[in-house]
Task: structure prediction
Amino acid sequence: MKKTKVAIIGAGPSGLLLGQLLSKQGIDNVILERVTGEYVLGRIRAGVLEQGFANLIREAGVAHNMDSVGEVHDGVEIAFNDERVKIELSKLTGGDSVIVYGQVEITKDLMQARQEAGLETIYEVSNTQLHDVKSQTPYVTYEKDGVTHTLQCDYIAGCDGFHGVSRQTIPLDVRTEYEKVYPFGWLGLLADTPPVNDELIYCKNDRGFALASMRSKTRSRYYIQVPLTEKVEDWSDERFWEELKKRLPASAAKNLVTGPSIEKSIAPLRSFICEPLQYGNLFLVGDAGHIVPPTGAKGLNLAASDVATLYKIMTKVYKEGDKECISQYSDIVLRRVWNGVRFSWWMTDMMHDFDGAKDQFDEKMSTSEMNYFIQSEAGKKVIAEQYVGLPYEDIK
Result:
């Protein structure tokens, strides 16, 4: 039987970051993960880090690669057909910016730091179950190599994603789940080609939405809006590049360098929030408790702010003996989550073609809103403040 202070379910970036931060404060933790580390690193995800997230990575002591090769972006572009407008993030927010650094790289850095510190991560576990989470002596059982193990702990951090066991542990009559499913998805392609622009371009086009993003100066990530009925195998690289070029502004399309895809997939878009995000001594972190469409680049960043809140609470618990503060977790996190969900919903609603799902009035409203926000200094400031991320809330 093992014992630790904090049991972390899930070895994705949020679980690893939480574990690293807790360890820096001398708070023991063990991470349980159902798949292999290689599988975790194979998940292609977001790469735009808010200012607060970047600072949290630095606090965890794993920022060397991020600060060395990550791309600091002081702006982002929004294009409406061939009109391009730059949102000057630093200028409009008093100096804040974002960093483009892939989630895979963050995860790799955190894995390496955890291994070098001799911290325990147990991969390929199955039948993970959480017990007595409302008591003062919660514990986790899991199977590894056909043997059942028990991990005793003080607290459990559920960082195991939407399909994990953590949220399901909260009884149905206790939790309320809110969901909005969008009638389209994003077809994404990753390629070792230089990006079309130094900064991201969010494109609203008569043919549908597109996003020109990147992971580095030599690796690009592009997305186009597609119906949910589309299948990735029906999209050859050539077909993708042709459609992308039609949706980019002409001034950006002429810079498009094509090449073979490294990865190609279709992600459905939806918003999802579970309330509460805490049940006894169980805390939901990241996708275990909330999901946002990727339009506002908030998914990974909201997970990071969850981590920051839980890390601060655990530090007060173990450094100051303040157990009363744990009741603040859900309220603090949900305030930021709902704000992020609202921004992502708003960007999604404004930038995408709903192909008849909206009536003509609503379509006109979206166009009018777009025109206001990209032509007004006040509108640009709203986008900039949300995009770089609001400040993290302190624990009382």
Observations:
- The chain is about 35% helix and 30% strand.
- The first helix runs from residue 13 to 24.
- The chain has a mean pLDDT of 94.
- Residues 2-73+96-178+270-354 form a domain with the FAD/NAD(P)-binding domain fold (CATH 3.50.50.60).
